[in-house]
Here is the input.
Amino acid sequence: MKFDTPATPNPIDRLRVVGKPHDRVEGRLKTTGAATYAYEHHSVPSDPAYGYVVGAAIPKGRIKSIDIARAKAAQGVIAVISHENAGPLAKGEFYTQRFLAGPEVDHYHQVAALVVAETFEQARSAASLVRIDYLKSDGSFDLEAQKRTAPVAKQGPYGGPTETAVGDFAGAFAASAVKLDETYTTPDQAHAMMEPHATMAIWEGDKLTCWTSIQQMNWGTRDLAKTLGIPKENVRLISPYIGGGFGGKGTAQSDLVMAALGARAARRPVKLALQRPLMFNNLIHRPATIQRIQIGANLDGKIIAIGHESLSGNLRGGRTEPTTLSTRALYAGANRMTRVRLAVLDLAEGNAMRAPGEAPGMMALEIAMDEMAEKLEMDPVRLRILNDTQVDPEKPERPFSSRRFVECLETGAGQFGWSNRNATPGKVRDGRWFVGMGMAAAIRGAPISKSGARVRLDSGGVVTVETDMTDIGTGSYTIVAQTAAEMMGVSIDKVVAKLGDSTFPETPGSGGQQGAPSVTAGVYAACAKLREAVAQKLGFNSVDLVFADGEVRSGNRAVPLGAAAQSGDIIVEDFMEYGDLAKRFAQQTFGAHFAEVAVDSFTGEIRVRRMLAVCAAGRILNPKTARSQVIGGMTMGIGAALMEEMVVDTRFGFFVNHDLAGYEVPVHADVPHLDVIFIDELDPTMSPLQAKGLGELGLTGVAAAVANAIYNATGVRVREYPVTLDKFLAALPDVT
Here is the structure.
C-alpha cells in the first residue's frame, strides 16, 4: 500500500480500540517474570557455554602480544578468541567502532579477548588469566582542548546539514537591539538501561541464530552479517523482549559479534552478557557538547537573528551530535546560522541516545531563550508564543503538517499556574527553601518509514500479527494489537501480536521516534489486505463492508469473522510505503515542559517538586502507554539536569564512573508526581492513523525547564550541565 495523499476517513476513525488506554498486552508476562529476555533462554538451545569479555586496559595503542596459554588450560575453558584467531572482521554501516581490538586499540575497554567456558564462573575466572602486553600511544580525550581547532563535520546520512545559513545572520545580529551570546556545555551521558547487552548465539552449518537485545532487527542483521562477512539471509535475530535501550541497542554491538565468534569457535551455543563496568567504555554513548548560541531581537521581542554552533567529539570516522536540529525548526527569525564541528577523540563511540541532537541541543537553546526573555523583560512563555511560526523557518514555502505549539504553551501555563510565578529570581521562600518555576519548549522530528506486517486469521476469529518491530518497554505489542483489532472489528483479546524476529516482515524498529507510526501503518496495510481477502471468501462487496463485534456485515447480512477461515487460515502480507508528503510538509512533534523546584538555602540541595508536560503528537494511539513514555522522558530529563555525567579522566583516557554506583540516574525519591496533557491533534500527512511518535518528545526541553526553575529560585544561572552543587553553592543568596 502506498500513502501519498493525506488521510481520509477509514476504519481507524471508529476509535473503538485505538485511542483507548488499554493495559499492555504483555504486561502480565513482564510483571510475573514470564517474559524471556535475551540471556534467559534456558531450553532453546540447550546446553550453552558462556562467554566473558576481556576489555583493553589502555585507551590508545597496540597489542604487542597476548598470552592465552594459562586461560586455555583453566578448568572448563573451551575457547579463547582474540584478533589472532578471530578471522577478518569488517564494520557495520551505522557504528564506526571496531568490535575487537588488535593489533590496534581504539579506546579503553574495547574487547581484547573473549573466553568461552562451560560455566559463567569458569569463563570469568579464566579471563583473569589472559595476559596482554600493550604498547601505549598518546590519544585525544579532551573536547575543550579542540574547541578552536576542530573542523566543521562532514555531511553524513543522519542529522541534517552540518552548516546552514539563511539571510544575513552576522549583520542582523550586530544590528539587534537586544542580544544574547552565551556558551553552554552538556556532558557525556550513558544509556544505563536496566538490561545489559546480552546475546545467545548458535550456528547450524553456515546459518547463525542469535537471541539478543536489539532495537532494530533490519539494521542488526545487516550489520552483523557485514561484520562477519556472511550473507544477510544467513542471519536470524530474535528479540521479543528488551529491558530498555534508549538508542543504545540500535544495531549490532560487541555482545552480538563476540557471541557469534564464540559460538563459531566453540561449535556450540554461547551466552554472553557484557559486565556492567565494561559497558560504559565499551559501548556507544551520548557525546559531550560545547554549544554557542546567539540570539538577536527587536525591543518587542521578535527574533531577527538566531545562530547555533556546536562541537562534539567522536572516534575517527564517527558522526557528530546534531544539536542544531531544534534551532533550525523551532522559532521564527529571518536571519539564521547553524554550524556543527567534530573533534576526533579516542573515547568510546558517541552515537544515538534518546532524541539524539534535540535532547542536548534543547538543553542549551531553551536556557538561552530564558535568558533572552529576561533581557527583554518579557515572560518566557510570551516570548516563545511571539516567535511561533507555522512554516519551516528555513523554507517558508513549506508549511508544518501540524503545529499546536502555542496551544501547548498556553495550556501548560494555565494548568501549571504559571501566572503565579515571580519573575524576579530568588524572591520566593518556603521555610529554608528557595522556590522557583521554569519552563521550556519541546520539539522532536516526526519521521515515518516503510514498514511491513503479516496477518493471519483463523477459524476462531483470532487475528495473529507478525512484524519484526521490537518493544523496548514502549508498548509496541499493545498498539500493534490495537491497530489490528480496530481494523478487523474484534476485541483486543482476539489479537496475538508477535514481534522481534528478523524473519518477520521488516519495520524500522524502535528508534528515532518513528517506531509507533511506522509499524501501525504497516499493520493497517496488511489488515486492509486481509479485509479484502475475507470479503472475497465470504462473497461480500468490500466497498460497503463493516467489520465490527467479531462479525463481517453488509446490509442485513452478518457473518462471524472466523467463518472466512473455516477451510483454512487466511494469511496475507503487505507494507506501507510513502510518497513525498514528508518533503512537502515539515513533520514535527511539539510540546512544553513546566517545572517547580526547591533549593535548600543552606545546603543547596535541589528537589523537583512538580512537573507538567503538554504534548502535541498527532493521534494518541494509547493514552496510557503514551503517558508512560512521556513520564519516562521527563524522568530522564531530571537526570540530565541534575546528575547524569560520564566523567572523563583526560590523563588516562576513560570514563571514570563506569558503573551504576558512580553514574547516577534518578531514583523514585528524586521524582515527584509527573503530569502529562495531550493536545487533541490529528496529522493526516503521516499515515491513515494520523499518529506521530512521541517517545523522545517527552525528553527534549525537560533539563532546561529544571535549570530555568533553579535560576528562578536562586538567581544563579548555571550553563554547564549537570547543575550540581559545586557550580552554584557559593553563589546562593545569603540566608536571612
Observations:
- The longest strand covers residues 433-445.
